[in-house]
Amino acid sequence: MTDQEPVLAHEARRISTKQAAELLGVKPETVYAYVSRGQLSSRRSTGGRGSTFDAKEVEALARRNRREPAEGSPAAGTLSVRTRITLIDKDRYYFRGVDATELAARHSYEEVAEWLWTGVLRPGATFTAPEASVAVARRAVDALPEHTGPTDRLRVAAIAAATADPLRFDLSEQAVLGTARTLIPTLVDALPPKSPDYRDGSSLAHRLWARLSGREPDEASLRALDTALALLVDHDLAASTLAVRVAASARAHAYAAVSAGLGVLEGPLHGAASGLAHRMLLDVLDRGTAAPVVADELRAGRRVPGLGHRLYPGEDPRARVLFGLLEEVPRAAPALAAARDVVDTTARHVPLHANVDLALAVLTASSGMHASAGETIFAVARTAGWIAHVLEEYGEAPLRMRPSGHYVGARPPQPLPEQ
């Protein structure tokens, strides 16, 4: 017999602080820094002296650290997050390894969302919201001032829907998927319809159209809207998606994580960019030519909206697909011509291509929608992508999205400020 505690066969192998430091190639103090950041978990050793660590967890962190770029390398200082959702490669992008433009062209927004979440295609997938959830969200949205922007409306709808869901703190995969399938249609149905004779259509795109345009949609226009939603569902770690993953890293529930994404989305360099392109196209149509409009933008020191993308050296594949569909919409012809005029005028000296914001602006401007409609389309579409990233982040160590600040202020100790 021995006075040591028996070690169960299924118990994880534990190592000392010194052993963990050696595996990680760091000082013991750094091991505890990893603990404070949530990158490692520790347990007090028998007798209360020192701490022990799960050997597999330490080894996994060591492998991750080895994959991170060394200081001074080209990638150093760039936050890198492992993901299996979206890959952007040259002038193409892929959802779980499948060409995203082909998926969007052949499948509905709901089907693409399901593929993004689960890696399984569900033909005929539709999203419906509980009446109670929609009622709560509608009351909250209706109480907002008339001038409230679209992203604020959606954020309020998301928060209101959360209060009606007592299971929102269940972060299991199936619970979060259930939330996603009801939250997205809740966001759409909470928006006021544009037509007094509005009747719900079966697809999410049909219901969203009725919230954005008072015109009766034709089949080609609905297809363009549905494809736009599918094309915009995710785009790797855009600013709003990073905010969502930070929230999920802190184990915020899905509604709160989506609200974090919506807070970032309405920036003019992100979700609101299509609204700037929309107004520009209307100006071109009003003046009959792009030349003076482009000149005004440049004279004001602004970039011409809807052109170029930092991730695509050539053509934005999302714009290419959406422009192709808009060719089939007869009433889109004037806005399409205006968009081409902008591209041709601007590209005389700099080879810039149209991006998805310009294509989205053609859709909204030719459909009788407000300039902010593109922002709404973007937000609804991207909610599905955010949920995919929430699910992925829940599978990682909590609080890992905690970069260290590089302090450059006055060195302590400093005297107390005088009153």
Q: Which keywords apply here?
A:
three-stranded antiparallel sheet, disordered N terminus, mainly alpha, 6 strands, 419 residues
Task: Write a concise synopsis of the structure shown.
This protein has 419 residues and is mainly alpha-helical. The chain is 52% helix and 5% strand. It has helices at residues 17-24, 28-36, 55-67, 100-106, 109-118, 131-142, 150-163, 173-189, 204-212, 219-231, 239-249, 254-265, 273-287, 291-299, 317-326, 333-346, 356-366, 373-394; strands at 14-16, 42-44, 51-54, 86-89, 92-95, 98-99.
Commentary on this structure:
This protein is 52% helix and 5% strand. The protein has 419 residues and is mainly alpha-helical. The longest helix is centred in the last third of the chain and has 22 residues, at 373-394. The protein has helices at 17-24, 28-36, 55-67, 100-106, 109-118, 131-142, 150-163, 173-189, 204-212, 219-231, 239-249, 254-265, 273-287, 291-299, 317-326, 333-346, 356-366, 373-394, and strands spanning 14-16, 42-44, 51-54, 86-89, 92-95, 98-99. Helix 6 (131-142) packs across helix 7 (150-163). 41% of the residues are buried.
Helix proportion of residues, in percent? 40-55%
Order of helices and strands: EHHEEHEEEHHHHHHHHHHHHHHH
Please tell me the overall pLDDT: 89
| Dominant shape | globular
- What's the β-strand tally? 6
Largest sheet: 3 strands, antiparallel
Q: How big is the Rg?
A: 25 Å
Provide a count of the helices. 18
Strand arrangement, major sheet: 1-3-2
Distance between the termini: 69 Å
Produce the secondary structure layout.
Layout: E1 14-16, H1 17-24, H2 28-36, E2 42-44, E3 51-54, H3 55-67, E4 86-89, E5 92-95, E6 98-99, H4 100-106, H5 109-118, H6 131-142, H7 150-163, H8 173-189, H9 204-212, H10 219-231, H11 239-249, H12 254-265, H13 273-287, H14 291-299, H15 317-326, H16 333-346, H17 356-366, H18 373-394
Antiparallel strand pairs: 1-3, 2-3, 4-5, 5-6
Helix pairs in contact: 4-10, 5-10, 5-18, 6-7, 7-8, 7-12, 8-18, 9-10, 10-15, 10-18, 11-12, 11-18, 12-18, 13-16, 13-17, 15-17, 16-17
